[in-house]
Design brief:
The protein is an alpha/beta fold and 223 residues long. The protein has nine helices and five strands; from the N terminus they run H-H-H-H-E-H-E-H-E-H-E-H-E-H. 60% of the residues lie in helices and 11% in strands. Helix 4 runs parallel beside helix 5. It starts with a helix and ends with a helix. The structure holds CO-5-methoxybenzimidazolylcobamide.
Length: 223
């Protein structure tokens, strides 16, 4: 099997939710010298995009989305240590969670992996995270950044609920807030008063580093 055939098979197997085959192909790809990024961006993510398109057209239903998501998550577990390989010291602490009412976590997990790879210490609160839980985690871990992920238009309003809870707890000035997720836009991030938004995992890392550098420079200039 050559590179193109492997990526095509990985795409096809993810599409039909064949988890064991996706795992085998991920391992085979690594043995062949393919990078985790090649498999992610040329097979796994495009395949899930097609799953979403078929769901929208009514050709796929929730069970198909679920098994495709599981197949992708399995591959991500193999790729995680490779993507998160880092020799750098912790650049900052990042508390992350998918908002209340939302169970999507693949995108969030990918952002976490890339953040870890860039040297962030990531505390993952999981999915369906209520505003009070974000507040507790900020009080407990004192992170530099808190990130909210939402993948449904119906759960995006939880960003505002989270912001209100953080403000009410008197924590807003102590933490940078980032938001993201498939339906989220820069405009929406501005409306809810977030400090940063990113469209994908690598942009999230870049934005997190920029916001942190800006915050530290501002703190330094006040001293
Ligand atoms: Co759902 N689902 N789903 N789903 N699902 C979507 C999101 C949908 C777009 C499909 C579609 O219609 N085309 C649609 C949402 C429509 C909308 O609201 N606009 C949808 C729907 C409708 C639903 C249900 C309501 C279906 C139903 O029950 N009738 C239901 C909701 C359940 C709930 O949450 N309450 C549901 C359920 C599910 C499953 C459980 C079956 C499964 C989730 C499995 C899991 O996550 N463990 C699932 C899946 C797999 C999908 C699709 C097919 C794939 C999502 C995914 O993992 N993408 C999805 C279709 C699609 O996205 N095209 C769909 C790959 C991932 C790498 O990309 O998630 O965009 P993404 O993450 C990116 C960025 O968003 C960004 O970086 C990530 C990595 O690059 N990012 C951040 C994410 N978080 C960030 C945070 C940041 C910065 C960047 O800073 C803090």
């Amino acid at each position: 099997m050559n590179r193109e055939e492997l990526l095509q098979q990985m795409y096809d197997s993810t599409l039909v939710g064949n988890g064991p085959e996706v795992l085998a192909l991920t391992n085979a790809g690594l043995s062949m010298g393919l990078s985790p990024e090649e498999m992610l961006f040329e097979a796994l993510i495009p395949s899930l995009e097609e799953v979403g398109a078929r769901f929208e057209r009514g050709d796929f239903f929730v069970p198909e989305m679920l098994i495709a998501g599981k197949a992708m998550s399995g591959a991500l577990e193999i790729l995680r240590p490779l993507l998160a390989e880092t020799g750098v010291e912790s650049v900052g602490t990042f508390v992350m969670g998918t908002v209340k009412g939302d169970v999507h976590d693949i995108g969030k997990n990918l952002v976490n992996i890339m953040l870890e790879g860039a040297g962030f210490h990531v505390i993952d609160l999981g999915v369906q995270v209520a505003p009070e839980r974000f507040v507790e985690a900020i009080e407990e871990h004192r992170p530099d950044i808190v990130g909210f992920s939402a993948f449904l238009t119906t759960t995006m309003p939880m960003f505002k609920a989270n912001m209100n809870a953080i403000e009410k707890a008197g924590l807003r000035d102590s933490v940078i807030v980032m938001v993201g997720g498939a339906p989220v836009t820069q405009e929406y991030a501005d409306v809810v008063g977030a400090d940063g938004y990113a469209a994908d995992a690598s942009a999230a890392v870049k934005r997190a580093k920029e916001l942190l550098a800006r915050r530290r420079a501002a703190a330094g200039s006040k001293v």
